[in-house]
Design goal:
This protein is of the alpha/beta class. The chain is 39% helix and 20% strand.
């Protein structure tokens, strides 16, 4: 623990832990079950597997599990935690925060002097929780203790075309000074009022979704955040950022194909505002004349953007999609699952001393773009190498080898059981998840 009289520097992520349910359904089998064309989910959306919860898991149990893992695996004294921020949109109580549920783990050490509550705005809550935790350490109220950010969600959809874009998972981040992954102070936001995805039904966990509008909002936020981020980056560093300079580019990932298209768009936009700007650029029309082109022309230009960005996608974004492909949409933890995937899939020498560009989006809507600065220390036993080695051993093995595949029929049955049980009174036959 740092002395309270010392100002914190290089505040960021000291440790990471990941958890997802142990059962999943194969997307290619789900295609057959749903009687859709072959490749609709696996190629069209870029998904491979989807984790799901039975009726013995909820957002509280996911959060407790990943929080407990963080403290246990990294030998963290619960008394050293001074702030617990939670990002979720899967709350099961309209008043009591998930953050208070997590106090069960800290109270055993007689530590109740803990700030922080839940942060809720669709998938952006995890990023806001991270910002709040970092601000806690930088603030004059900081007493030298560490912060923890927990991001947990269950992405469930009613029967129909959106159900295949579900998933479930949780992350826990230990936040403090002298971190191997530092949150830079360059941060661009875009917030607006829109009903692209929302949850007005008190008797159901299923959202109301306008799919096309939500994609349009995501894309518009991406454009605006990137342009504003460039300006703020210039003000701080005296130069504009180039996408080529980042070790990785991570996106909020409702499904992987949207991420690929977003990288293509970002790559094209980067060219348009850089040295290659002008009407001769093949992507010029989509940004300068988007209101004048029809859907067919948009798809044609989008295809050109995808072709132009193939190399950049393979190097900087595809490595970040491992968990998105294997687990599905994790809502608030989706973007940070991308960070874990990037860390364990890229060679160390391509990461040390570099920056990672992050784009966060939550429907409703709030979006943000920022960058993480990775430590330049690549020595064996350094904070960054230790973090990556631990994640490689735990996450890759668990996700690839320790989960159980279930048939689409079983998956559908569990979804029905959860739907029937939602909001009902607890009975004597209810199961409870324990650590």
């Amino acid at each position: 623990m740092t002395s309270r009289n010392t100002s914190a520097t290089d505040v960021g992520i000291l440790a990471l832990e990941f958890y997802c349910p142990s059962q999943y359904v194969d997307q290619d089998e789900l295609e057959k079950f749903d009687k859709v064309s072959t490749g609709k989910y696996t190629i069209g959306l870029g998904q491979k597997r989807m984790s799901f919860c039975t009726d013995v898991e909820d957002v509280n149990s996911l959060s407790l599990t990943v929080f407990h893992r963080l403290l246990e695996k990294h030998n963290i004294d619960p008394k050293l935690i001074g702030c617990v921020q939670v990002g979720t949109e899967s709350v099961i109580d309209k008043s009591k925060s998930v953050s208070t549920v997590l106090m069960q783990i800290l109270e055993s050490s007689e530590n109740s002097d803990v700030s922080g509550v839940d942060n809720i705005n669709a998938c952006f809550g995890g990023t806001q929780a991270l910002i709040n935790a970092v601000n806690y350490v930088y603030s004059p109220f900081w007493d030298g203790r560490l912060a923890v950010v927990v991001m947990a969600d269950i992405a469930s959809y009613d029967r129909g075309p959106a159900r295949c874009t579900g998933g479930a998972g949780a992350l826990a981040l230990l936040i403090g000074p002298d971190a191997p992954i530092v949150l830079d102070t360059v941060f661009a936001f875009h917030k607006t009022h829109v009903y692209d995805f929302y949850k007005p039904k008190g008797d159901s966990e299923y959202p109301v979704v306008d799919g096309k509008l939500s994609i349009d909002c995501y894309t518009d936020a991406l454009d605006k955040c990137f342009l504003l981020y460039r300006e703020k980056f210039f003000k701080k560093y005296g130069k504009f950022p180039s996408l080529d300079s980042f070790a990785g580019i991570c996106f909020h990932a409702p499904y992987c194909k949207l991420v690929q298209k977003s990288l293509a768009r970002l790559h094209c936009l980067d060219l348009l505002v850089g040295d290659d700007a002008g009407p001769t650029n093949s992507c010029w029309n989509i940004f300068c004349f988007s209101s004048k082109i029809d859907d067919y022309e948009y798809r044609r230009v989008e295809k050109a953007m995808l072709e132009q960005s193939t190399t950049m996608f393979a190097k900087k974004t595809q490595p970040s999609l491992f968990l998105a492909e294997q687990v599905g949409n994790m809502y608030t933890s989706s973007l940070y699952g991308g960070l874990i995937s990037l860390l364990v899939n890229k060679p160390l020498y391509q990461l040390v001393g570099k920056q990672v560009l992050m784009f966060s989006y939550g429907s409703g809507s709030v979006a943000g773009m920022f960058n993480l600065c990775l430590s330049a220390d690549q020595a064996e036993g350094s904070k960054l190498t230790t973090m990556i080695n631990q994640l490689s051993e735990s996450v890759l093995d668990y996700v690839s080898n320790q989960r159980t595949v279930q048939t689409p029929e079983i998956f559908s049955q569990w979804m029905q059981i959860r739907e029937d049980a939602y909001g009902k009174e607890f009975g004597t036959r209810t199961f409870y998840t324990t650590l």
